[in-house]
Amino acid sequence: MNSPETNEERDAEARAALQTLIHEYAGQLFSLGVRFCGNRSEAEDLVQEVFLQAFRSWHTFEGRSSPKTWLYTIAARTCQRMHRKRAGQPDSIPSLDVTLPFGDPLIAVIPSEQEGPLQQQIQREARDRIEAEIARLPESFRVPLVLKEIVGLTVPEVAAILGLEEGTIKSRVHRARLRLRVAVDAALPRQPDPAPPPAYSRQTCLDLLNAKQEALDRGVDLDSEVICQRCRSVFASLDLSQEICRQLGRGQVPPDLQQRLQESLETTASD
Question: Which of 78, 88, 153, 229 could disulfide-pair with 157, CB 3.0 to 4.6 Å?
Fold first, then answer.
């Protein structure tokens, strides 16, 4: 008959498991924390608190979900406790009509078709604008967007973490994406000639936009030849927005935070 596992053995097991999770996810959690909290200091506190909570509750985890989903669930809840709504922060974002370029007289250029130096400049300015726009999003839109576009979770995973319906997550991510698209579009030079009249009805363009959003959700290309020049420009700015968000998710753990995490695990005992 095996002897019962001691508290010291359980703590050692938890520390070993969390060392692996720190190596795999601490950088991404830090990047998430910067966008959740708005500054590096609070992001570091968030990451440390996530792993301390994970250590203390390791015995309740039991592999019922993936470790990644479990950690991000802790992170989302911790951030909501740490980060109160900022004064003047809106509760919603503008309607769909405000985020679409149906009335723009000039169409933005396609970023991928620009020469090297210009493309790099566009990328830099677009990244700055996206960072600023993410910070301005209401929390109910910012959190799903960050989890989906920056962390790279699936819609079902984000829904499970936030305790919301998948349709709600999709709606909020789609609307937040369009806000980022507007920010990216403002960084793009315009075509020299006025835009041609729309090739299709407004509803057709909206249907194509919805199909594009669904394709972005799944991480696949939109396979359609029925795309007018204006929609092609919109889709290109959406692609650039998602590409930049993915880049934002490739964060590294600051060395001092890495040290703090190691020390915290060594000195903290589970209940």
Answer: 153
